Amino acid sequence: MFTRLAFPVGILFILICCQDASSRFTDCGGWLEKDKGVIHTPNFPARFPTPIKCDWVIHNPDPEKKIITYFTQYFLKNSFHLSEYDEYKNEHDYKGIQYLGEINYENEYTSLATYKPYLVIRFKVHEIGKMHLRVEEFLKDVYGFNITYEIVDNRQDIRETCSAHDCSFLGHCVASSNYENYRCECFPKFFGEYCQYGPFCDPDKGKNMCENNGKCR
């Protein structure tokens, strides 16, 4: 005869939460106080470990300046959240929060300017699943993101940059060493400012995959 052991639900929940927290990858994120830099997922462009939780805190102490984030190589549908704060010590100790939203590559953002002293990027994923941009033949094995930021005078214009969408999903958007210029670096066999030309679209050679007098790009 067997005796059924009663296991309190509350204790079970605590055990599961603690196990998840102890196995979560957190060797990422950090405080960023330089006037420009790069933020990327661990192992980019390869897979990042899961579960994972990363917080990047960009600190801009000068009220005459703003933080601009450029989504140069961004391949996520979800799990990437932006918030700005008047004061920030950690996720439990802060003042003046303004949640800016969750960034999805389908929204085709190229940049975002924020004006409070602290910008927090929170990246939290339990399982990778179907959360990445995928394009036939290309971008099948790229994970996460590799983006840039800069802290500049409030009067400075946002730079003209690019993104996966701007590069026709046929190249990567890359920054110059000083983060002042951005361009599309095309995959093999593709060319043009936006990687819009290739094996099936080359006006100089009379190649046009479009019908009804459409123009390929």
Verbal overview:
- With 217 residues, the protein is mainly beta.
- It has a domain at 23-165: Spermadhesin, CUB domain (Jelly Rolls, Sandwich).
- The chain is 7% helix and 36% strand.
- The strands form five sheets. A five-stranded mixed beta sheet has the order 1-3-10-5-8, with no helix packed on it. Strands 2-11-4-9 form a four-stranded antiparallel beta sheet, with no helix packed on it.
- A hairpin with a 2-residue loop joins strand 6 and strand 7.
- The longest helix is centred in the N-terminal third of the chain and has 15 residues, at 9-23.
- It is globular, with a radius of gyration of 22 Å.
- The termini are far apart.
- Residues 1-7 and 9-19 have low confidence and may be disordered.
**Total beta-strand segments:** 15
* Fraction of residues in H or I helices: under 10%
For the biggest sheet, the summary is:
5 strands, mixed
Q: Which structural class do you get from the secondary structure elements?
A: mainly beta
Strand content: 35-45%
* Tally of contiguous helical segments: 1
End-to-end Cα distance, whole Å, is 75 Å
The radius of gyration over CA amounts to 22 Å
CATH superfamily of the domain at 23-165: Spermadhesin, CUB domain
Helix-strand string: HEEEEEEEEEEEEEEE
General form: globular
Question: Residue ranges: pLDDT <50 for 5 or more in a row?
Answer: 1-7, 9-19
Mean pLDDT: 89
| Shape-level CATH architecture of the domain at 23-165 | Sandwich
